[in-house]
Batch of 2 targets.
Target 1
Amino acid sequence: MADYDVAIIGGGAAGLSLTHQLRGVNDRRGRPLRVALVEPPPGPHTPPPRTWCFWEPDGGPWDGLLAARWEHLSVVAADGAEHSSPASPYVYKMLRSADVDAYVRASAGEHVDQVPLLVTEVRDGADHAVVRGRESGGAESALTAAWVFDSRPPRPAPRGRTHLLQHFRGWFVRTPSDAFDPDAAVLMDLRPPQPPNGVAFGYVLPLSPREALVEYTEFGREALTTAEYERALRDYCGLLGLADVEVTAAEQGVIPMTDARFRPRAGRRVFRLGTAGGATRPSTGYTFSGVRRQTAAVARALAEGRVPVPPVPHRRRHLAMDAVMLRALDTGRVRGAEFFAGLFAANRFGDVLAFLDGGSRLRRELAMGFTTPVAAMSLTSLDQAWYSLRTRRAPRERVSRTRTRGR
């Protein structure tokens, strides 16, 4: 018999969400699931605090922990034209990882063990998997579980035809006088200088009239150095008219934006979760909503006695559309600033957010497509379709040649 029913590797958004989803879940015999939340011991492998942003209708399961929420959003074009709209039926929300972490641990219950272990190996098996690692003192240790969910980035990372990075650095700032509207957030400010391919933008999430998260973000092939981000943030604060700000904290990160296929199943008993399992939406880099759908499906499967394969929480047509958009940005066929400004200028923000979160209908998506650069996107769609056809044909041709030589 395995030590645990479920072992969850990693205490980020995916690991904490699944731990929370499994609270109070019983197996088909009515017995509470025994869960291990496996994380590195405190030290250099401990991830820094961060914020998670997402949108959903009001009344969500994490509303009691929100650091801030905004019902009104704006996008600023490169020429300074501002497009503002209610986010309805959505609310844009911010969670702090430290708040989620503390809440999930406090409410985990007696059937969840928090295991400090730097995982070095996960070995699949017929009736259980083995997780091996090092404890804080360096001693080797192991545990077994009927099912293992690994939220760590896969090595090597899947590579698709297009592989961009959403890379960013943000400052939590405080101003000496009122400078922000706490009821409205700037989702994209496209006035910063633009890279040749991809897009650069600022991002302002007010926390109070004198406090906000101000972020500089790029979609591109390479991340910047910290010094380059700092220079970009100083310049962006200048654009905002924030000449005198106190930086109280900072966060920095890189999120993959790729048409690569992330496979949630890594073995008979081992699965990938979160970004590693395809929860990140390629066109936006947003992950939290996908994680919630993915972990809810896993919890249902475990309660019903099914094999708990985490679903990729995005429709195939949306992934295909995302692949076209990423390719168009990467090739320079569309200018990122013009693409995003035009999309939000010509459509209700709620409709755009519905599409970006996977809740839109095909008819509305097609209408939205005509508000983007139609010629460039059509050319890229044909290019992507031809590439897909060639890559599907190539394996068959290789097999055919091998069989011919073998006769």
Target 2
Amino acid sequence: MFNRDKWNEVIESLTSNLFRTILTAFGVFWGIFILVILLAAGNGLENGVKQIFDGISSNSMFMWSQTVSKSYNGLPKGRRYNFELNDVAEIKREVNGLKYVSPRNQLGGFGGDNNVVRGLKSGAFNVYGDYPDIQFQEPMKILKGRFLNQNDIENKRKVAVIGEGVIKGLYDFDEDPIGTYVKVQGVNFMVIGVYKKRGLGGGNAEEDQKQIYVPFTAYSQAFNMGQTVGWMAITAEDNNSITKLKSQVFDIIKRNHNIAPEDDRAIGNFDLFEQYSKVSGLFIALNAVAYFVGILILLSGVIGISNIMLIVVKERTNEIGVRRALGATPWQIRGQVLFESVFLTIIAGMTGIIFATGVLAIVNALLPKGADIPFANPSVDLVTVIIALSILIVSGLLAGFIPAQNAIRVKPVDALRTE
């Protein structure tokens, strides 16, 4: 345990040349400051991306049919085919580990002809024929009414859930859309719900709000789709990876449609889980780079402290000789030098952490709340602070080790002869 005299000696030693001490400590201050800021920036990017993915079933895959690129069983290459409802049933039955398999059909969209009419107003909107499970695969909030349910599917009800963008295009200000009708290519659908969508395009992306959801069965009947499925949204259970299961799904499609087993180009897919995993791996790499760069900068500050402690030991050679002559052990001399080094390092480092925390608080205050940017809440957790403190302590010991060794090599008689 350190007594008051020892503390007074440390403070006197470090303040005897205050300007030199401050310049030396600045290297450690700057190193830990940069380390915390880099780690916080990495966390801010990760939080922003997770905010964009919020509500999305990231363990999902979207799959559609493409042109067959290889001839097989007497059938030519270059032919087109469509998914069918029996494909969906077989995928659900034969592939274990899937949570949702949602067949989908789509009509119209951005840049297309006006396909939806209400009164004298019309617009071009994406119209989806869906099952109720799609609400668990895409992030949306029901603002009014309800979403599609199984009764709508079984009874082929001509009902629709519309987005805020559809309301702006087809309705007057403050008009309640629930219970009204919209006409999709001549077929009337009653509005039963209003949603606000969030997703990869951003929480308020305009096109995300210009969509209409109707029951898959009613869509198929109204637009003569029969058993045809345009594409599928497939989600795996939490303890499974869709990336590992999708090959089984592809095998069923190839078998049902006489597609060569090695023809991977015949089925298009977007593996959201695979993309999300790549992004997560990127953040791990960014944190590793932040630690690497921060520790290198911190190391330069530690070298500065080690150099200044060597000078301090040289200046106190006479004092060390007196203490050795009075019976001070090598461990006491070494401990004093190491303690001064660790103390200076921790003070400089904690000041860097405090300044970095202040900068992060200002940045968080200036960031717009709820903005659709891939950067949110840059911060560091308690574990990071503990790691930083551990680095500081180890750095202080390293900085003081060589000066401490030099100090105990001083012979009392030689030290007493120095001026």
